[in-house]
Amino acid sequence: MKYDFTDKLVGQLSFSQSILRPDYGNLGGVVSVNEDTMIVTVPNAQLKPEHSTKYYASLQYYLEPSGMLGLSYYKLDMQDMQVTGITVDPESVGFNPGDYEGYTFRSAQNLPGTSTNEGMVLEYNQQLTFLPGALKGLSLYGSLTHVNPDGPRQNIPKEAANWGVRYNYGRFDFQINGNYQSEHRVSALSNTPTTANNGILYRDSRQLWNISASYKLTDNIDVMLAGRNIFNEPEVIYSNIPSRVQMYTVYGSMWNFGIRGRF
Distance between alpha carbon 19 and the CA centroid of its chain, in Å? Predict the structure, then answer.
């Protein structure tokens, strides 16, 4: 539902429901036995679908001559949220107490009750065509996201941001953009600080910058340059505490140069 408060201010409310069916491998896959970690992973034929309900509200203010400033809020309620790697009783998954003695049994399970994520997003984009001369080719954009879950989540940073500046004038086009993610958990929700080998793994906060540029030599030929992760930001995974680095990966910057023709 949308409502125009003024010619420039628009409000929106929405409501949606969805269902996530279990992965086939979690329902009826094979039993996996890892003798190094002494973990038996078993399927769960009783795994139920995950039902979610999303509530969304936003305000958008449109800027002249072309742009928008927006603020939105959402709430996502998930019933029977599916979580893999939960420690279970061997007898509950069809094994006898003496089977694989000393091993830990794990399986996908539905969390009881309702799990909730709440979030807010602030976003802005505008073409600055009101500026004088060559500056009118500037445009800006960015967004800031904050997520507030009611419990631990996997691969969901609580803060994230995207931003960029673009300049287009005559035959020249240039863009620089970046993104940021705060530290967040990457290991399974079943992991604890005492889980063998890894404990709880987190990805450290990371900021990436990219650029791209092109120049039109003729109406049909462009010269292009693009750089990804131009400051060579590493990816850091740590166990339990930031000082206990488990993986430090340097991917390097990636640069591409090309000529594009249209005939």
Answer: 20
Prior bond of 65 cis (ω within 30°): yes
Q: pLDDT grade, residue 157 (50/70/90)?
A: very high
How far is Cα 161 from Cα 178, in angstroms, rounded to an integer? 8
Structure tokens at 181: 């993610």
Instruction: List, in sequence order, every residue forming a beta bridge with 166; answer none if it has no partner.
Output: 139, 175
Convert the pLDDT of each residue in 60-78 to its tens digit.
Answer: 999 988 899 999 999 999 9
Q: Do the beta carbons of residue 126 and residue 139 sit within 8 Å? A: yes
Q: Where are the beta strands (DSSP E) in the chain?
A: 2-4, 9-20, 32-34, 39-42, 50-63, 67-79, 82-88, 104-110, 114-127, 138-149, 159-169, 172-181, 184-185, 201-203, 206-216, 221-228, 235-239, 245-249, 254-261
* Stated pTM of the model: 0.83
Could you tell me the residue ranges of all domains in the chain?
Answer: 1-116, 152-263
CB-based burial label for 187 (10 Å; 0-12, 13-18, 19+): buried
- Residue 27's H or E segment, with its range, is helix 24-28
What pLDDT digit, counting tens, does each position of 19-74 carry?
999 888 888 878 888 888 788 889 888 889 999 999 999 999 999 888 999 999 99
The single-letter DSSP state of residue 92 is G
